[in-house]
Amino acid sequence: MHKYNKKFGDIWLRARHNALANLEAAEEASKKVVRYEIIISFLIILPIASTILAKSCPFFSRWDVLLSLIGGLGALYFSLVGFVQNARKKDEYHRRAHSVFNNIAQKTRRADNPTLDEKESQYLMRFLEEMFETAKSNSFEPSDINYNSGWKRLQNMPKLPFGLDIGSPKSKGKVLTEKSNIEQNFQLYESLNTENVHASWVSSFNFEYKRVLDIGAGSGRDAVYFASRGAQFVVAVDSSYEMLRLAKQKHGENKILWLLDSLPDLKSLSTAELGSFDFILCSAVLMLLSEEEQSASIRTIVKLLNEGGTAIITIKTDDTNNAVCSLTPDFSRVLSEFGAKAEKLNGNTDLLKREGVNWTVYKITK
Fold first, then answer.
1. Of 50, 67, 236, 273, which alpha carbon lies 20 to 30 A from 245's?
2. φ and ψ at 315, to 5 degrees?
């Protein structure tokens, strides 16, 4: 048995618990969609029934029918926009969070290996903890009921890794699922300077009159920098509603469109008909996705890139554990499908001075 089994077991348990809690939340949202659609169906039938009733009952006037139609269609509109879309969005995001946390749990299973040395174990623990915190800050928070239901699912699993033995449900999920301090992360991102964070490439680009997309925009620090450098238009995308709220609150809307969305699909960009971009930044995002999601994400990025455009992808890695954070083996093949090519640049320095942490930068041109 590996001496770090207890620590790795705790990471696995938190990740798996969050995965199941998000699955519970997604299923709950899906049920709401069905209920709301039933109500909408009733609201569609209501004005039709009122019209029939008006013809058969002399005490109903034409105004009764008109008002019923207006009320029914108005209720239909607000129900569709306000409830169904919100429930569907929550369903989608909770399912995505379920996938991300499951991915972390699967990566944790790599630690169930007695041949791991001290340095590899410490690096893997630090990497998994950072992945977990990033995932927590970029996902909707399930309810306490969801967490407790997720815990019950864990208890019903036939066998747990790392010799784990879990007891009764944790009250409201608080023991294993402390909320990430998004405001603290926001201040941390804002304390760093774009020119320093991206020193290996940013000074060589001319952003004037360019259409720019920042995927995983976080606090909006980089999006604001691009706008200040003369970009025609900047779209800042992030999967955290709270982070976007803080970013918009601090930086405003001047030449920046803030969107709640995430890879691999970025569906809101198609919905808003925003077209393609001259420059795309995807920093510290792909490393949180599975290989299949990475391949789909790279396709999305290249499709959104104009001919002659440039995309920058950064991932966290180090020389001794390169495989832990590596891009999908399909990276080059996916690029070749679109006639794009990649160049590996000098890595960015980790400004938080975390031991063993380096950044790898890929420049994609089309």
1. 273
2. -135, 150
- Is pLDDT above 60 for 232? yes
Tokens of 282: 């995807």
Q: What percent of the chain has pLDDT over 90?
A: 28
Q: How far is CA 358 from CA 36, 171, 348, in A?
A: 48, 39, 7
d(CA 210, CA 206): 8
Categorize the per-residue pLDDT at 310 as very low, low, confident or very high, splitting at 50, 70 and 90.
Answer: very high
Amino acid identity of 352? L
Cα–Cα distance, 20 to 26 (Å, whole number): 10
pLDDT at position 9, please? 83
Residue 67: pLDDT over 80: no
Higher pLDDT, 120 or 323: 120
Among 202, 250, 204, smallest CA distance to 226 is for 202
* Rg of the chain in Å (alpha carbons): 24
pLDDT digits (tens, 9 = 90+) for 126-147: 888 888 877 877 667 787 788 8
Contact at 8 Å (CB) between 348 and 364?
no
CA–CA separation, 233 and 223 (whole Å): 10
Beta-carbon contacts of residue 256 (< 8 Å; ≥ 6 apart): 220, 223, 224, 227, 234, 235, 236
Where would I find the beta strands (DSSP E) of the chain?
A: 211-215, 233-238, 256-260, 277-283, 305-317, 341-345, 358-365
Say if residues 29 and 191 touch (Cβ distance below 8 Å): no
- CA geometry: angle 46, 51, 57, nearest 5 deg: 115
CA angle, residues 316, 319, 323, in degrees to nearest 5: 65
